[in-house]
Amino acid sequence: MDGMGTLARLAGEEAPVSHILGFGGYVPERVMTNDDWAALVDTSDEWITARTGIKERRIAADDETTLTMSANAARLALEDAGLGPQDLDEIIVATDTPEVYTPDTASFLQHDLGAREVPAYDLGGSGCAGFVQAVDVARARIAMGAERVLVVGVELISRLINKTDRATAVLFGDAAGAVVMGRSGGRAQVLDVVAGTDGSKAEILTLLTGGSRHPFTMEAARTGAHQDLVMDGRRVFKEAVHRMSAAVEDVVARVGRTVDDISLIVPHQANKRIIDAVGARLGVDDERVYVNVDRYGNTGSASVPLALWEAVRRDRVSDGDLVVLTAFGAGFHWAAAAVQF
Ligand SMILES: CC(C)(COP(=O)(O)OP(=O)(O)OC[C@H]1O[C@@H](n2cnc3c(N)ncnc32)[C@H](O)[C@@H]1OP(=O)(O)O)[C@@H](O)C(=O)NCCC(=O)NCCS
Q1: Is residue 273 in some structural domain?
Q2: Which of 40, 65, 108, 279 is the most exposed place for a label (fewest CB within 10 A)?
Q3: Tell me, what CATH number does 134's domain have?
Q4: Domain membership flag for residue 340
C-alpha cells in the first residue's frame, strides 16, 4: 500500500476515527541555560544556538521522577477532558526513561492516579517517536472497544545522560505531555496515523547499557565500563528530515488531503535545523510549524504532546484546523498523525 509500514486496510475500509478529549503537559521549574552548560563542559551558547536552536531546557528537581511528571501531565489532561481517573479504560506510557527497570511506569501511574484495575503498559525503546506510536495503539484499542485511553509521553533524561559528553548532554531536557483519547466528544479527531521502522539503522542512536548485550552489573558500575548514549548526529539528522517529511505527506494523502491543507505541523522538537529542513522540504512556511525546542530542548517522547498542549493553550489551533503530528526516534522509528480540530 503505502510502503510506510502501517497496517494495510481492506480496500474502501475507513480508518477507525478516535477523538482527543483532553490535553495536558508538565515541565519542571528549574531552567538550565546554554551558559549553565558552558560552565560545565567545553561548549558555548553560540555553538548550541547555531547548531540546534536550543536556548534552555528544564531539569527535574531531586524529588521528581518519571512518575511524578507523568501524573502531573495526566491529571491536567483528565481535567481538560472533564473526566476522572476512574473513567479510564487503559493507560499507555511512552518513555525511554522509565520510573524503574521493571515494572513499567504505567503500573505506578495507574495506582498514583487512582484509576481502576485497567490494562496499563509502557511503550518503551522507540525514542522520540514513542508518543505518536502510542496514539496509534490507542486508536486501535478504541476501535476494539476501549472507551477512554490515557496516552502519556514522558522523559526524565537529565538524570541518565553523560554530563561530560558535550555532543549529547546539551541536547536534552525533562518534560511530560498527555492526551485522553476516546470514542467520541472532545475538540479533535485522530483521522489516521502512519508509522514505520527501519531497524537497519538501530545503531545510529542507541543507549547500550542495561540490556543483555551490556548488562548493568556491579562490576561495570565499579570499573566505570558503562556504554553511553551512542549517536551519529549527522546520520540521525538526515534520517529525521527524510522520515518526518515523508510521514507527513503520507498521512495527509491517506486522509484525502494535501500538505497545503495543513494548518499546523507539530513536529518532534529535536533541533530547530531539523524542523526548518522538514518545513522547507514540504514547502510549508514557518507560521504553520510549531516550535518550542528553544525553550525545552529535546524532551524525547514528551516533545510532541507537550508542543501540542502548548499550541492548543496558546490558541495556535482553531476549530476546523488540520494539525499533523510527526516524530522520529531511535530504532529508527517514525510516525505521523493527522488530527482534525
Ligand atoms: C548533534 C548535532 C547538533 C551536531 O551538529 P553538527 O553540525 O552535525 O556538528 P558535528 O557533529 O559535525 O560536530 C562539529 C564539531 O562540534 C563539536 N561539538 C559537538 N558538540 C559540541 C558542543 N556541545 N559544543 C561545542 N562543540 C561541540 C564536535 O566535537 C565537532 O568538533 P570537530 O569538528 O573538532 O570534530 C546535529 O548533528 C544534530 O542535531 N543531529 C541530530 C541529533 C538528534 O536529533 N538526536 C536526537 C534524536 S531523537
Answers
A1: yes
A2: 40
A3: 3.40.47.10
A4: yes
Question: For position 287, what pLDDT does the model report?
Answer: 97
Range(s) of the domain holding residue 210: 15-341
CA nearest to 37, candidates 52, 18, 26: 52
Report the C-alpha gap between 179 and 50 in whole angstroms. Answer: 33
Residue with cell 476501549: 146
**In-domain check, residue 190:** yes
Chain segment 182-220, per-residue pLDDT in tens: 999 999 999 999 999 999 999 999 988 888 888 888 887
The residue nearest atom 13 of ligand 1, judged by CA position, is 167
Q: Cα(232) to centroid of ligand 1, in Å?
A: 9
Catalytic residue set:
128, 268, 298
Q: Tell whether omega for the bond before 332 is within 30 degrees of 0, i.e. cis.
A: yes
Q: One-letter amino acid identity for 197?
A: T
Residue 310 has pLDDT above 50, yes or no: yes
| Pocket-testing residue among 34, 49, 51, 55, ligand 1, by greatest number of atoms within 8 A of Cβ | 51
Question: Does the predicted TM-score (pTM) go above 0.85?
Answer: yes
Give me the number of domains the chain comprises.
1
The grid cell for 190 is 485522530
Q: Is 303 in the pocket of ligand 1 (CB under 6 A)?
A: no
> CB of 54 closer than 6 A to ligand 1?
no
Q: Examine residue 70 and state whether it is found in any structural domain, yes or no.
A: yes
